[in-house]
Input
Amino acid sequence: MNRREALKSVAFLMGSAISATTMGVLFENFVLPEKEKNFVSFSATDEQILSEFAETIIPTTASSAGAKAAGLGTFIPMIIRDCYPANFQKLFADGLKEMQIKCSEEFNKDFIAMSNEERNQLMSSLRDDAIATNKAPSFFLIARDLTILGYYTSEIGCTQAREYLPIPGRYDGNVPYIKDQKAWATN
Amino acid sequence: MNINTNLKAENTYDAIVIGSGISGGWAAKELTEKGLKVLMLERGMNIEHIKDYDSAMKAPWEFERAGKLTAEQKRTHPVQTRDYPYNEATEKWWVNDLDCPYTEDKRFDWYRGFHVGGKSLMWGRQSYRFSDHNFEDNAKDGYGNDWPIRYKDIAKWYDHVEKFAGISGQAENWPLLPDGKFLPPMDLNCVEKSVKERLEKHYNKTRILTIGRTANLTVPHKGRGSCQYRNLCSRGCPFGAYFSTQSSTLPAAMATNRLTVRPYSIVNHIIYDKETKKAKGVMVIDAETNETMEFYAKIVFVNGSTLGSTFILLNSTSEAHPNGMGNASGQLGHNLMDHPFRVGAEGSAEGFEDKYTYGRRANGIYIPRYQNMGNDKRDYLRGFGYQGGASRGSWHKEVAELAFGENFKNTMSLPADSWSMGLGGFGEMLPYYENKVYIDHNKKDKWGQSVLAIDCEYKENEAKMREDMMNDAAEMLEASGIKNVQPYDNDCYPGMAIHEMGTARMGNDPKESVLNRWNQMHEVNNVFVTDGACMPSSACQNPSLTYMALTARACDYAVKELKKGNI
Output
């Protein structure tokens, strides 16, 4: 299973937690024309912002490290450049810039300089926008999708947030579920 | 080509087996065990058991290309990327479509694997017997020709191959799905058990649900390890726990010291001897050097996969066989079939929130065909079965829309709040003469060979059946207490099920068929075809087990005939 296949299986299991846009990109086996690959580029600062953005979606908690430690800052741009068609790449890159403008207008500072509380406020506002537009493809939607998918296929996501069992050795389809037991990382 | 006498002696065997997949592996095993010196020709690379299963032990995050297939892989595999099977972990099993193109008069997804083991490494492992209903359907409704055999002719050969391959399953005494020599069945999970109980009660046992019958070992068997429940079979099994040429038939054949395997050997055609009216051998193109060479034998088993075998026969023309070897009937290349699928229903099971699973079972449930049987009459011919299963995923419907943050993460790290259960149909496709393949001489492959053209489509009977495949699934799930039942039809083209069969059918009448009741060519009696090409009908069951049984049966006959001097 490659990373994309892993993403697909995780995406499938998560059902409506993942937007239709991302499901379409992952499940429709379209071939990306060569000229559309790497249509946009991301700077080191962009990667830092994406890393912190992802950490806001899936933060470090008592049980496990979060999205930042799982390497989502580089994973998200890589998937955007390799998997998404040019129009979505542009939509994503423009959306990232718009988010930064929103930060200076509404919080009077860079995203990186914002406190966790401010970032949560910003996310709520982006989420409300996404719901108001009936989940039209947007930076927030795609970045959130990729955070969830990338995190739960990473080593940290598989082995800390969930439980990874490489060789079960047997099958039991009727074991008691103990409250708060973690989900298996693979199916 | 000039061959000196020594080389000719060196290149001569008792039998040549073309192909090393499920049926080729069986032919090599049976023929060598019966004392023949055998050459097995494989067009692709060698794959050594365990050692060459590169990705078998990798964790999800350990794959080098952390994204997806590269642009180059997509360019070279335009057909293999049409559906699920081709990915980074399994890429070495699937062919480069640009090297071996084919012509699609209508869309046909042709999934191929060129390597020792063939599709025995990539198959879905579901293993079901055909019943007399299946062997009699053609004669009853007039589609296709009558099967030249009945269940009693093949039953002991099913026993024979099951005992060796190791098929796990549950005996059910269902008329359309004969029981076999099973290893202990895998377990149904708690939701599947509940669905089984309610479904069988609701339909008063006119429909049943059983655990899938699969070529995965539930106990150690003939030196092979049992299934470790990793659900990574598609990468090759380092425990040898599923039947493949590598895990099963090849070691048995090698143990006789009578088998020679030659990889990178593309059989271009079978050489016909007009004096003896027999095949005298095969012409091979070395896939690496493009060098051509000949090999000779008393008998030739053609096991190059359904369409691979038919291509070789169509390409084996001579004065006596101008339209392909053994094609006086005009049936060679015709009656191509597959199984329509990608249609069914799914929903959620409530009341099992206190249950979970341990281990990953590479198997599901099976509902054998119940239509057009007894009092169940439909407005189409034949019928369908279902595969499916229940699982507890990680979808949480209570999570607020587009949620994020600590609570969101904590919830998403837990199993789903409910189980889901799905059923997907596999239907029988009728044999139609006009669904055919032929050689397209205007296109060449990497080795300069002409290519196959495929002209095949699902028709009205399949379309009508498809509606029931969706509606019956939804009805059964609802009758079993499943909630939020969603029917689906994801559309389907021939080839997608990778159950392509037909095109060199068996039959009693040489005017109507290519092969006789022993898979022996009517016209050239030392040529046997025992892969999917031989099938006069498709039934709706997964076909590989039947290819195994027909192969072992044909080998037994061929060796007896050889010893009697009849071949």
